[in-house]
Amino acid sequence: MNVRWISAALAILVLAAVCIALGRWQLHRLDERKARNTVTRTNLAAAPAPLDQILGPQGVVGDQHAWRTATVTGKYDASKQVVLKYRNVNDKPGFEIVTPLMLPNGKAVLVDRGFLARQSSELMPQHVPAVPSGEVTVTGRLQRSERGGHTSGGTPDDGTARLINGPDFAKVLNLNLYDGYLTIDKQEPANDPAFGAFPGPEIDDGPHFFYALQWFFFALLAVGGLVYFTRQGGRDDQSEDDEVVEQSEEARAGAAD
């Protein structure tokens, strides 16, 4: 075996190890998704409850609260309303309208009032339905604050944003906001019919299991290829040895003649 062959064999083994690691990572993600689906199913089936009863004094919507139905009563502050741009619902581009709901305890919660499909190439919705006057009761699904890594999409700028993020909105709107938001299921008085509803959560295992199988298959191919070429190399070496021996024997026979 020469140095080049050893280097190639090591590279193939490293490649196989990486494929196995990626396969295991996909299985880990599958376990996480199954656990999240269990929480989501439980929350979807739970009876509506007051917001503070669900979140407690922390006021933070966590993974364990996703899609839980909460009820809250207060008054909308339309002066601090934010238009969410570049949103998509059922593959349709459009806008979402987020309005703070002011609560009797001095805090406020962000309410995603609904989706407005984009008309033609408009950059902003031509008409935003007005908020109901006076006190409203909202029943909706809790969602975690959206985060976009190092982007500033959750910070409102000139009344618009790309993400719904409680702490980022609080800084700009100067409100004591819950960390998270509500999407409306029902509202009294009723929500404006111009708003489109949001789809429910996707509760399935996703493609992680099949991705894991693919990575394990790639690892098997790499190891199988190494074994095959090792055997081929051994046969070639043996053929070369046999040829050398044969040539030596012929040389000795010629010398004897």
Percentage beta strand: 15-25%
Instruction: Characterize the largest beta sheet: strand count, sense, and whether it forms a barrel.
Output: 5 strands, mixed, barrel
- Count up the helices: 4
What average pLDDT do the residues reach?
87
Model regions low in confidence, pLDDT < 50 over at least 5 residues: none
Into how many domains do the coordinates divide?
2
Query: Which CATH first-tier class of the largest domain would you pick?
Result: Mainly Beta
For the largest sheet, list the strands in their spatial order.
2-4-5-8-6
Mass-distribution shape: elongated
Q: If classified by CATH, what would the architecture of the largest domain be?
A: Beta Barrel
How would you describe the overall organization of this protein?
The chain is elongated. The protein contains 4 helices and 8 strands; from the N terminus they run H-E-H-E-E-E-E-E-E-H-E-H. It has 2 domains: 77 residues; 121 residues, OB fold (Dihydrolipoamide Acetyltransferase, E2P), CATH 2.40.50. It is of the alpha/beta class. The protein has a 5-stranded mixed beta barrel. Belongs to the SURF1 family. This is SURF1-like protein.
